[in-house]
Design a protein that fits this description.
By secondary structure, the chain is α/β, with parallel strands linked by helices. The protein folds into 2 domains: about 1-210 and about 405-420, 3-Layer(aba) Sandwich (Aldehyde Dehydrogenase, Chain A, domain 1); about 215-395, Aldehyde Dehydrogenase, Chain A, domain 2 (3-Layer(aba) Sandwich), CATH 3.40.309. About 40% of the residues lie in helices and about 20% in strands. The chain is built from 15 helices and 18 strands. It has helices spanning about 1-15, 20-35, 40-50, 55-80, 115-125, 140-155, 165-175, 185-200, 220-235, 255-270, 285-295, 345-350, 370-375, 415-420, 445-450; strands spanning about 80-85, 95-100, 105-110, 130-135, 160, 180-185, 205, 215, 245-250, 300, 305, 310-315, 315-320, 335-340, 360-365, 380-385, 405, 420-425. Strands 10-13-14-9-8-15-16 form a 7-stranded mixed beta sheet. A 6-stranded mixed beta sheet has the order 5-4-3-6-7-17, sandwiched between helices. Strand 15 (about 360-365), helix 13 (about 370-375) and strand 16 form a beta-alpha-beta unit. Bound molecules: nicotinamide-adenine-dinucleotide. The site of nicotinamide-adenine-dinucleotide has 27 residues, from helix 7 and helix 8. Belongs to the aldehyde dehydrogenase family. GO terms for molecular function: aldehyde dehydrogenase (NAD+) activity. InterPro entries: Ald_DH/histidinol_DH, Ald_DH_C, Ald_DH_CS_CYS, Ald_DH_CS_GLU, Ald_DH_N, Aldehyde_DH_dom, Aldehyde_DH_NAD(P). This is Aldehyde dehydrogenase.
């Protein structure tokens, strides 16, 4: 591991990655390789957890291709020193922010969007001029393999490389000195990463998880809400960091919402969900068993069918899960959807204040005042009004958590900024040297007292 980091650091010091044309050349090569291997990527993720090809194209390959497209098109303007207005105290000067790469960065990815979450941060890292080491998840070995194939084909090892493996490999990597660490995964492992980074004061982005509520009030369009919640929840078989974790629904529309959710699920996947080509599987036996354990003692309204042979768990709706129950303890991360009724804002508050700040929150309502109340009262990474999940698809919006759901954000230009240090530079000529700041100070004391307006 140490040798890999040293080789990359040495390459970084050659200054090659500082050239914008060099960065663009490799971003283009990466783009071509992803296009070339798009079918193989789909096959790999299908082998890992039967993710439907459409979902892989939508949320993995085309997602990163769009990020690449933007980075290649915009890199010149992103990387240009940005002129800032000067302060009177420094007049005459011209002031700038220079974007500089951190150096050698480590990217650790999870299994749930195994291609996107390894490659999207890489695009930001390379656009900003860094070298990178990627550690994909060991839980999706077929995707890990295709990532190795693409990266080895496109990049010299001292520029970008992949280290495969599990916890041990990850911890060995974390023991090295990095210039930036970008981690996507659970809050628990996020704490381990943060501690390792502290040793060298390495800056981090932590993209973590949370328990995301979707609130449906009495004014909501229930049929549309059901479709948009079900799509966001059962996409990737519920293994999405920004999927609805549980629904808080006004008691007057609860039955209608349940009815619409059931109809929607049937219309998406037919009545034979296990044989639908459009519904993925839970990623491993361990995760599957963890989900089944959450169903113990719960009132199942719909679903619950399962098959350990391929870790199949049907989209499952639960009625009025208790806050103390296993399913309401932590992030569910599977196709289980507790539906809980509320009557007052105070009821909502009981749930919202019981959990750490989530990665996402969604509100379905036609009442603008209600929407604004939720938006202004509660802190969460991001979200949507009258939809779920799709805020991730706007590259102009920062994607990241707050508090226990993460530190930092990325996508589009924000990725470039994340992987760049903003270096403040003030430029002066020597033709004028106003003496007010030089001793003896007594001559400029009156001037000093007026400085508050001049910085
Ligand atoms: P995880 O934290 O178990 O693993 C993530 C990565 O860390 C993997 O590469 C793994 O090998 C490594 N790792 C695991 N244990 C480690 C340890 N003890 N020390 C060092 N490294 C270790 O997460 P996961 O199960 O792969 O992914 C699911 C989690 O990720 C969920 O909590 C989900 O919400 C979160 N997530 C967040 C985002 C986001 O963008 N915010 C996106 C996807 C997933």
């Amino acid at each position: 591991m140490q040798q890999i980091v040293e080789n990359q650091r040495e390459f970084f010091h050659t200054q090659h990655t500082k050239s914008i044309s060099f960065r663009k050349e490799y971003l283009k090569k990466l783009m071509s390789a992803i296009e070339k291997y798009e079918d193989e990527i789909c096959d790999a993720i299908f082998l890992d957890f039967k993710k439907p090809k459409f979902e892989t194209i939508l949320t993995e390959t085309q997602f990163v291709l769009a990020e690449l497209n933007t980075a290649i098109k915009k890199l010149n303007s992103w990387a240009k020193p940005a002129r800032k207005s000067t302060s009177w105290a420094n007049w005459p000067s011209s002031d700038y922010i220079y974007k500089e790469p951190y150096g050698t960065v480590l990217i650790i990815a999870p299994w749930n969007y195994p291609f996107q979450l390894a490659i999207a941060p890489l695009i930001g890292a390379l656009a900003a001029g860094n070298t990178a080491v990627i550690k994909p998840s060991e839980i999706t070995p077929n995707t890990s393999e295709i990532i190795v194939k693409i990266i080895t084909e496109v990049f010299p090892e001292n520029y970008v490389t992949v280290v495969e493996g599990g916890v041990e490999a990850s911890q060995n990597l974390l023991a090295q000195k990095w210039d930036y660490i970008f981690f996507t995964g659970s809050s628990k492992v996020g704490q381990i990463v943060y501690k390792s980074a502290a040793k060298y004061l390495t800056p981090v982005t932590l993209e973590l998880g949370g328990k995301n509520p979707t609130i449906v009030d009495a004014t909501a369009n229930i049929a549309v809400a059901a479709r948009r919640i079900a799509w966001g929840k059962f996409l990737n078989a519920g293994q999405t960091c920004i999927a609805t974790d549980y629904i808080l629904v006004h008691k007057t529309v609860k039955e209608k919402l349940i009815h619409e959710l059931i109809e929607t699920i049937k219309s998406f996947y037919s009545s034979e969900i296990a044989s639908s080509p459009d519904f993925a599987r839970t990623v491993s036996a361990k995760h599957f068993e963890g989900l089944l354990a959450m169903l113990e003692g719960e009132k199942i309204i719909f679903g619950g069918e399962n098959n350990p042979v391929d870790n199949y768990l049907a989209p499952t709706l639960l009625d009025e899960s208790k806050m103390e129950s296993k399913v309401m303890e932590g992030e569910i991360f599977g196709p289980i959807l507790p539906i809980i009724s509320y009557e007052t804002l105070a009821d909502i508050d009981t749930y919202m204040s019981n959990y750490e700040k989530p990665l996402a929150t969604y509100v379905f309502s036609a009442d603008k005042k209600f929407q604004d109340t939720i938006l202004s009262k509660y802190s969460f990474g991001g979200g949507a009004i009258n939809d779920t999940v799709i805020h991730i698809a706007n590259k102009n919006l920062p994607f990241g958590g707050v508090g226990a759901s993460g530190i930092g954000a990325y996508h589009g230009k924000i990725s470039f900024d994340t992987f760049s240090h903003s270096k403040a530079i003030l430029k002066k000529g020597t033709w004028l040297d106003i003496p007010l700041r030089y001793p003896p100070y007594k001559l400029s004391l009156d001037f000093a007292k007026k400085l508050k307006k001049m910085f």
